[in-house]
Amino acid sequence: MPNSAVTVHVRIEGRERTLFEDTSSANGGYVTTTHGTTPVSGPADGTNANEYPFPVPTATSALAYVATGAGARPKWGAAYSRALDDFVISTIGDTASADEGWRLFVNFKPTEKTGSRTLVKTGDSVLWALVPAAAASVPLRLHGPRTATVNVAFTVTVLNGSTGAAVNEAIVGGQTTNANGQATITVRTAGTR
Fold first, then answer.
1. Is residue 83 assigned to a domain?
2. Are residues 59 and 88 in the same domain?
3. pLDDT for the residue 57
4. Are residues 161 and 114 in the same domain?
5. Do both 89 and 162 map to the same domain?
6. Is-contact 120 24, C-beta < 8 A?
7. Residue-wise pLDDT tens digits, 141-175
8. Within-domain flag for 149
9. d(CA 10, CA 12)
10. Angle at 58 between CA 57 and CA 61, to 5 degrees
11. What domain of life does the native source organism fall in (predicted)?
12. CATH code for position 68
């Protein structure tokens, strides 16, 4: 499989809000970030720990492409672990505390491999989420209209991203979902959320 660029959907969920969500390119290669103020470079191309015999687009290469810190984009930071042959991410906009960690999901399923060993393909959904270290993580999927009108109610549905089951008691826009995973929301001011 050649290392050609793919287009994936990337979402970054911080401690209290979505930090980034958009489509992005991913193309495996060497990437550079920082650990504190020290520059850190390493492969993010699937050759890590001999996962693939040739470079491939990976979840970490997609992250490196979007988390540049430019404009409103979050900036990522990591150390490079020789033992893992991969980045150990500490920051993507928000910095993980001792009780938290950055978790990777592809197509709403937790990955078993590190980010630079996780192959991504065109159309994949890549989610990086800051989660409590000891808690089970369930990626959520939100369905609703792409646009809304000020002071006009609309309904959203929250689903378990892995199973598709409705999520009861999720909080969206200050409203709690019901047993069908639905909440009715009214926005009071114009803008992007």
1. yes
2. yes
3. 96
4. no
5. no
6. no
7. 888 998 889 999 999 999 988 888 999 998 888 89
8. yes
9. 7
10. 90
11. Eukaryota
12. 2.170.130.30
Question: What is the pairing mode between strands 76-81 and 86-92?
Answer: antiparallel
> What distance in Å separates the CA atoms of residue 90 and residue 130, rounded to the nearest whole number?
10
With bands split at pLDDT 50, 70 and 90, how would you rate the model's confidence at 193? Answer: low
Cβ contact 85:48 at 8 Å: yes
Do 49 and 110 belong together in one domain? yes
Examine the domain organization and report whether 34 and 102 are in the same domain: yes
Q: Quote the pTM value.
A: 0.83
Looking at residue 1, its pLDDT comes to 53
Strands 38-43 and 18-26: unpaired
Please check whether residues 150 and 126 belong to one and the same domain.
no
Q: What is the pLDDT of residues 7-35, one digit of tens each?
A: 999 999 999 889 999 999 899 899 999 88
Same domain, 128 and 149: no
Left if phi > 0, otherwise alpha if psi is -120 to 50, otherwise beta: which for 40? Answer: beta
Full domain range(s) for residue 176: 140-185
Predicted confidence at residue 191, as pLDDT, reads 75
* Total of domains in the chain: 2
pLDDT score of 192 more than 90? no
